[in-house]
Amino acid sequence: MNVAVTVDAREDIPVWLAYGTPVFTVLAALAVSAIALVVLDVNPVAAYATMFVETLFTEFGLRETLTKAVPLILTGLAVYLPLKAGLFNIGAEGQLVAGALAGTWIGLNVSLPGLALVPLMFVAAAVAGGIWAGIPAYLRAKWDVNEIITSLLLTFVALEIQSYLLRGPMQGGTGNFPQSERFSEAAMIPELLGGVHAGLLVAVVMVALTYVLMTKTRLGFEITFVGSNDEAAQQAGMSKFYVYLFVFVVGGAFAAMGGISEIAGAQGRYRAGFEPGYGFTAIPIALLGRNSAFKVMLAGLFFAVLFVGGSSMEVAFGVPAALVEIIQALVILFLITAEFFKSYRVGIDIKRGPTETPAQPQRGDD
Fold it and tell me: Membrane-spanning residues where (predicted)?
């Protein structure tokens, strides 16, 4: 018996597989993470009830989740938009930091009423983040330099600039802590009902604008076309150079607005390390929601629940904080696996060999 595994390219993706991939991915990641909880002698059902139910159905948990979701949604869009053009923006963390620094400088040094100061802080942040993201975009568009490497390396440059500024020109407060002065009341993002700051509205508006851009405009069609086949797009008269610059610069602006929304909405001053990997968490967020900007928003909310609920689970059950990072890594792993099965059909071919008829013994002559 011969057993062969066959892998054939799919001509059509089943509807249930196309729409069910994010759900299957999350459920598989949680199921495998439950093994780690069992090893730690923690009841997975009770732990996940704390992570999800108590987070989503208590006033404090819901407020913290929505607040945490703002930078996650915006950085998710920063990765999602270049991804639609076939590019990987791995440097959203650096763009978030660049925007937070620029917005903080405006907030601390410009005296205006809050209605003018807060929008100016967002504009300054968006410009700084767009310029920071424009560097790897230009290098890729002009000289085909790998944007993964350049955007990632620029993240470390931004973090070093942050460290210098918060220990030098922008340092404030008491002691030698790497932090800025506290924002004035005018520089703080106003709160909505329920205690969530208005940065949530900014995130929702950016999601809606991105959705309209990608589904209702010629530019959105060009971005998708370039991402699927850049050579055919150029033959059709589309500018790959312009598309690459646009998606990265706008993506950088999104990440930067996420940075200043966290500083001026939740923190009240710029502290080193305010960003617990938002820019890198944006990668699985964008992969989960890669089919739509609104799915990016849902993925951002899911990861916000993981962050907030993970902290609650850590306190309630004494599990390591790294468990949330394990879940994130598993989401990426299962996403990659799901993408393979969306592209290829795997089958098992069993072949039986020819049946041999045993020789009949011959009877001797009597």
Answer: 16-39, 45-62, 69-92, 112-135, 147-166, 186-213, 241-260, 296-313, 319-341
Cα atoms in the Cβ-side hemisphere of radius 13 Å centred on 366: 0
Q: What distance lies between CA 323 and its chain's CA centroid?
A: 18
d(CA 279, CA 76): 8
Q: Which two tokens stand for residue 192?
A: 């909505």
Any idea which residue has 């249930």 for tokens? 16
Burial of 116 (0-12, 13-18, 19+ CB in 10 A): exposed
Neighbours of 353 (CB within 10 A): 7
The Cα 154–Cα 138 span in angstroms is 13
How is residue 91 written in tokens? 């440097």
Could you read off the pLDDT of 40-53 as tens digits, one per residue?
A: 999 999 999 999 99
* Cβ-based burial of 22 (10 A; exposed 0-12, middle 13-18, buried ≥19): buried
Q: Is 291 exposed, middle or buried (0-12, 13-18, 19+ CB in 10 A)?
A: middle
- Binned at pLDDT 50, 70 and 90, residue 353 comes out as low
The pLDDT mean for the chain works out to 91
The helix (run of H) or strand (run of E) holding residue 342 is: helix 322-343
- For residue 277, the model assigns a pLDDT of 87
CA-wise closest residue to 166 among 263, 255, 277: 263
Going along the chain from its start, the domains and CATH numbers come out as 1-40+322-353 (no CATH), 53-319 (1.10.3470)
Got the DSSP string for 128-152? Answer: HHHHHHHHHHHHHHHH---HHHHHH
Q: What is the pLDDT of residue 145?
A: 97
What is the residue type of 185? Answer: E
